[in-house]
Batch of 4 targets.
Target 1
Amino acid sequence: MCDGLGASSTDQLRQLDNIWHVDFEFREDGNHLPVPVCMFAIEQRSGTEIFLERDQLLTLKRAPFGTGTRDVMVAYAANAELSCFLMLGWPFPCHVLDAYVETIGVSTSWMRPLRRPNRKSKRIRSSTKGCSSQTPNALQNLR
């Protein structure tokens, strides 16, 4: 079981021993499952590089880089890398940072409406009979 880091982002980075940027190349089999062809990983701080081809990957029981509670795997669209982990029978890393998800989160945050600090929310009277709440309740409408 992996524990959360539970601190500010700068403190979290200091708590990590390794930050591995990982990319798999793979093809799909007839069932659209990934068939790993090779993997490249580079550790952000030390610059250590790992390149393994398919025959080397198949001999491993786990990832050739740290995946414990003090390590993080960084990937773009990490679901692809994690599907290769599954196909290779490797345990998942405790911490994964998906740059695709982070990019979507940042790029769509501008679309959220700004909240006005002193604005009172309007309450809508419920049309459901027997409902004492002043706001609509979807669950009561389903009963």
Target 2
Amino acid sequence: MGPRFPPKKRGGAPSPILDPCLLRPKRLDGSRCHLVHQQRLDYCNSLLYGIADTQLQRLQSVQNAAARLVTGTRRSEHITPVLRSLHWLPIRQRITFKVATIVHKCLNGRAPVYLSNDLQYTGQRRTGIRSASAALLEVPRSRTAVGDRSFSIAGPRVWNSLSATVHESRY
């Protein structure tokens, strides 16, 4: 059974109903959908670092729906190749990328001072240890799961998990 639309009014101005053809376009411009959906998904997503998988699954389903809308892919088809073809990271990886980007900006002087003050290289406190020569960051201790999600802890953890070539890169 097709979609139901309210009956048209008799006489007077035409009803403000959208044309059914406009509701399901066959293919959208990828950049337009990226602007609408991906920016909404990226807004403050670094706050979602360490959140439960059940909560992230909601955002992932929104991203999957946007990818299907852009490409015209059916729900029965796998979404991973579609996301790869659009060059869209899954939500958890987007969040990790965002945190790593903020840390990189902090270390290169391109972020606010209040964020940069939370990061210290391991060699600044202790000298004579092996990690002092590496570009690793000090990871403070936390007693709670919420504390582990804070930028001062999550940022250094993400940064230390990256390769040495990323650590040495500038801008």
Target 3
Amino acid sequence: MWLSCILVLLVVMAVTWWRAGPHRAVGVTVLLSLLVPSWVTQEIFGFPVGIPIASSIMSLGAYCLHPRAIFRARLGLVDGAMITLIAIQICVDWSHQGFSWSIPMQAYGEWFVPYVVGRLAIRNTDDFRALLPLMLVVVILLAVTSAVQGVTGVNLAEAAFGHGQVDKNVHQISRWGIHRAFGPLKNPNYFGVLQLLLFPWSVYAAARAWHHLGPWWWLILPLIAAAGIFFPMSRAAQGGLVVSVLLASLLTQKRWRIAIPLLAATIALCVAWQSESTMNLLDAWSGDMRAWKNSRRSKQPTIKIDDEEHRATATSTRIHVVELYRVAMRKAGLFGFGTEAVTGFPVNVPVGQQDLNTLKRIWTVDNAFLLMGLRFGYVGLACFFVWCAGIAAIWIRITVWKSTTPGFTAFSAAMAGVSLTMLLILLTVWMPQQDFGFWYVWMGGASSGLNEGLHRDNLSRRTIGWHRKTKAARSL
């Protein structure tokens, strides 16, 4: 199956490479690879290589062979954070594991490949517009897969590509009587977050249809994409969609932008003031109503962290997992314990002696920032946060700038909303590279590529304007 998928993508890439150029081939190949399940992998040099990574390496090689390939780049903040993060991974892992060529190869596949492919695929707003029709096919197919599995329990991805290794019990879990769809990924949470990251493309299509630059049915695509996000029944993805749409709506209106920090501060204060009620509400959202029952029979199990008892619910464990690894974070220092220590759960890092029993019950680390801090220390965590925040800053700037391309302001506002929301979502999930992590890194590269393209266009316009003024002054 792996080889068959690669051959199909190779044909598509070759045709696109020949007819539309190298950077368009890079974009098309990666978009189509999103439809292939993350469990379709092939072990190469000891690493499980998925279709997105393999197709990206393949398209990078083809790009380098094309006579119109461009290798020059103006590096920005997001690029610098990514380069530093890659360097930290190589140096830290060499320090903990000893010298091995497999370490830079892992960093190459995990960060460099998806980031550079995204940067090469997107250079200006026209590239997003050119990839839009194909992306809409991907969004619709993922949404249909999500809805069908949510209603019937049948996973179309497994029907098409066969069964593979997925997270424990994902075939049996449901929420509010709805099967939790996981589609071509290994977990419903990952599937929901991936579709949330793709949601702005449906907004772009609807905005172009509103300007009569697309078919009328594009207007309903945001609803279709929202349905796809709903059926994995992931609170992070569902809540993230609401927050993203709210932020995007506020960003598009100049007079309402000041409301964003005020609204965030108000919500934070309310949550801090009514933390117990907020936690009960989030538990009820997941279908756990025990906290709302004032009955001794509904007494909930507890966990003990630092000799303090907490409720053993999905919400509570996500909130208190930072306390569980507080000792480990102090010992992580500037550069952390390395990749090997945090590969697989429970992670192999020191915790308090009194927390060893709790660690057997809370064995996952559903917090990407915490996991990054344990892996690469405070320096790596700072680089990762700057990289995530830098993506959001790029899209906020583009939204404020207001593109003249029809529908692009709505797209950039949606991207800004999703990018900001990801800063919250990553506090509740970790970022597996074989699942939504690949696309998030790709999106970072694409954001940086667009930012460079817009800077180049603005510089060109200023230069042309300066020459015209100089010529007019000389003629006088």
Target 4
Amino acid sequence: MNATPQLNTRLLEIAYQMRIRRTREAVDSLRADGPALAEASEQMRLARILRKGTVMKTRMILALTTLGTLAASSAFAQEPGSAPTAASPKMRVAAQVEMLPVGSGKATIDDTSMTQDAAIAYGVTGTFDYALTPYLSIGVAPRLILNVISDDADNDESADKELDLRARVLGHYAVAPKLELYAALMPGYAIVLSGTDGVDNSSGFAIGGAAGVTYDVSPRLFVGGEVGYQRAFTSNDITVGNQTVSADLSLSYMHVGLGAGTRF
């Protein structure tokens, strides 16, 4: 009966001593492995730092890339030539009234020639042009001239008319936002419609030129004025009684014109 408490006390002492011994062994083991653990801990700390640095670098690169893309997009959008704009009109039509204050006619029959000054004539021209480039257009410019007659003709003498069927090559240049200068070359075919009995219509090659200016009163509408010159080389037949002879008629006119038109 009395031995049991002593045995229990002895067992407790043995257990306590074993715990102390294990604790010392654990401490000794930690002391022995201390440098390796410290090195491992340092490596883990460095790995965390490197990982954080890599993440930060990646984020900075992404941010800079995004910023650069936005800046480039903004610059491209603001560049004058990059934004889509409506195409400029390539076609235009116009009408022009003309006064022809100076002119002359030369008639040649066989070896005989006669030159006379022309009376003041009046004309109307219609034009249609198509722009090949911002500075060059091609088109047509038909014209009807009234009162084609010599200035010393009798009052009862009938005047002729002239119909000019002309092509037009137009060079133009804007000298101001609404102001454009142009020069035109107009080759074509002229038909003189005779108003005299026994005289056939005469026809032949014609060549002319003009220089002028246009002013835009709106994005589509414009007005203009020009000065030009044309010479026509025509021929016809003249019948007198039973005899028919061939005649050459050269007509030249200077004109001043005012007109208006639209682009589309």
